Amino acid sequence: MRRNAYLLFLCLLFSCTEKETKIIWVYPYRLGTEFYPNAEAGIFFLTQDKEELDYSSWKRRTESFEIKGFEYEEGYFYKLKVEYEADQPPQKLKLKSVLEKRKDYIGNIEGAWKNIPLPDQPYFPIFIRIQKLSRTLETYGGCFRGITGMGEVGERKIQLVDTYYRLEADKICLAQSPIQEGGFSFVQSTTHYQLTPDGFLEFFDEKGNLLIRFQPSE
């Protein structure tokens, strides 16, 4: 009886709360109020509670969020096993193990680009801007402007979504100019990319065909 009472006393004294574990992913860049203008000032982690990485599904954590024992290095997706107290909001986590550290190469192609003519292909001027932090590719050309999300960006592999999640067209412009066929088709077809020694950014389809070539526009 005394032993049980003593154990209860120790639990009350040292907070013997049941621990639980889960798998989370950590975004490779911490974001500030440039993406959350109505949020309090600070730099925030983005995470997701999933076994498999979903490049488009992230939750902004509060400024007080922390993972004890986790040494964060920018530019990597982290898959972590973490521990937390079951009866407390999971704002304070403890690292159990790093399951995966996946390098992100989007920083290599971040910036503004303009396409250049290719032999034996019709030329339609297109501008793109790749944003590292928001993980988006903006396209401008003719009467159209669009934004698409980006998934994995490896050393050569690149994932663009099949359709724009935002596409705007100027109706007045369209009334004055015919629609340019295939102008943005590279977005749906691109699976690989390369940076050439001359500084060009090239996109390829799954068969290795060159779709479009860009040069820096800034």
UniProtKB/TrEMBL annotation:
It comes from the Bacteria. This is Uncharacterized protein DUF4377. It comes from Algoriphagus boseongensis.
